[in-house]
Write a structure and sequence with these properties.
Blueprint: H1 3-9, H2 13-18, H3 22-38, H4 45-69, H5 71-74, H6 92-114, H7 116-137, H8 144-148, H9 150-153, H10 155-164, H11 169-192, H12 194-199, H13 205-209, H14 211-228, H15 231-235, H16 240-261, H17 267-296
Helix pairs in contact: 3-4, 3-10, 3-17, 4-6, 4-7, 4-10, 6-7, 7-10, 10-11, 11-14, 11-17, 14-16, 16-17
Length: 297
């Protein structure tokens, strides 16, 4: 038996689950669910579940393909060396095959069971993450996460399209919130693991332009994010609770960004962790509003 086949023979169910990047997938599931809840119109609960499941599988498939392509650098980074491929539990070839099968399967079923618009958006998400971000941008430009971040911003838009079979301005705003959130989130992370990126020659912002330029970018994107995230309230598809909560969270986000700019100890990790809570809270508030208003009406 070849070395590659031996690796995959020793893999268990959890190893293949880890290939799907479950922590990233949890955020995808949640934002896709909010997209379904926030969209106008009704969807049968079973079909809503199927929609979110297929979005999660598609996102997980792109994670597996990312691990296939990045196997050479993942093994040299402290943050990623425990992943199934660099840890020698699953071969890169098997990760590639696994990712391809799940990619085509999730898109095909989305088109057959839900609608063509959501299937096209799911295919675009996978293509953007694997080809545009992982293969083309990640190792070439410090703007990799800025442009590539679009892949993580599609799930609520796909959820919206699953209900409406359309792309609307409202769904583009939900896309925009995550798209603008992504750079400060990952730039904060890159500040305290920059040695990892430097070791494998991935041109993240602090490696190429230094820590101060990264801090400046965090400030700029944070100042853009805070007002942009309130747009659903002003556009009328979110209520007052959403507007107030999101505005307050935006101010806190900017405060943490300023702490990074002032080089306060541990500020990068605090913003990174808060940014995860921020995105969850913003989308949770939107979903809860819709659910409560639905009960009342």
């Amino acid at each position: 038996m070849s070395e590659h086949n031996t690796q995959s023979a020793n893999a268990d169910v959890n190893d293949y689950f880890q290939l799907l990047k479950p922590r990233v997938m949890s955020l995808v599931i949640f934002t896709a669910f909010v997209g379904v809840i926030a969209a106008p119109g009704d969807m049968h609960p079973i079909m809503a579940f199927v929609s979110v499941l297929l979005i999660a599988i598609g996102a997980g498939a792109s994670g597996a393909l990312n691990m296939w392509y990045d196997a050479d650098i993942d093994q040299d980074m402290d943050r990623t060396k425990g992943r199934p491929v660099p840890a020698g539990k699953v071969s890169a070839d098997h990760a590639k095959t696994y990712g391809m099968i799940l990619s085509f399967g999730s898109v095909f079923l989305m088109g057959i069971l839900i609608n063509v618009t959501s299937a096209v958006l799911l295919a675009l998400t996978i293509f953007f993450y694997v080809v545009i971000y992982t293969i083309w941008l990640k190792r070439r430009t410090p703007q990799n996460i800025v442009i590539g971040g679009a892949a993580g911003a599609f799930p609520p838009m796909i959820g919206w399209a699953a209900v409406t079979d359309s792309v609307t301005l409202e769904s583009l705003v939900l896309f925009g919130i995550i798209f603008i959130w992504t750079p400060p989130h990952f730039f904060a992370l890159s500040l305290f693991i920059s040695n990892d990126y430097e070791r494998v020659k991935v041109p993240m912002m602090p490696v190429v332009h230094g820590d101060q330029a990264t801090r400046n970018n965090i400030i700029v994107y944070s100042l853009l994010l805070a007002p942009f995230a309130v747009l659903p309230y002003f556009m009328g598809f979110a209520g007052l609770a959403y507007g107030v909560v999101t505005a307050m969270l935006g101010l806190i986000f900017v405060y943490y960004a300023l702490c990074i700019s002032m080089k306060r100890e541990g500020a990068e990790k605090r913003l990174f962790l808060f940014s995860i809570f921020y995105l969850f809270a913003v989308f949770a508030t939107l979903a809860l509003e819709r659910i409560i208003l639905g009960w009342i009406s």
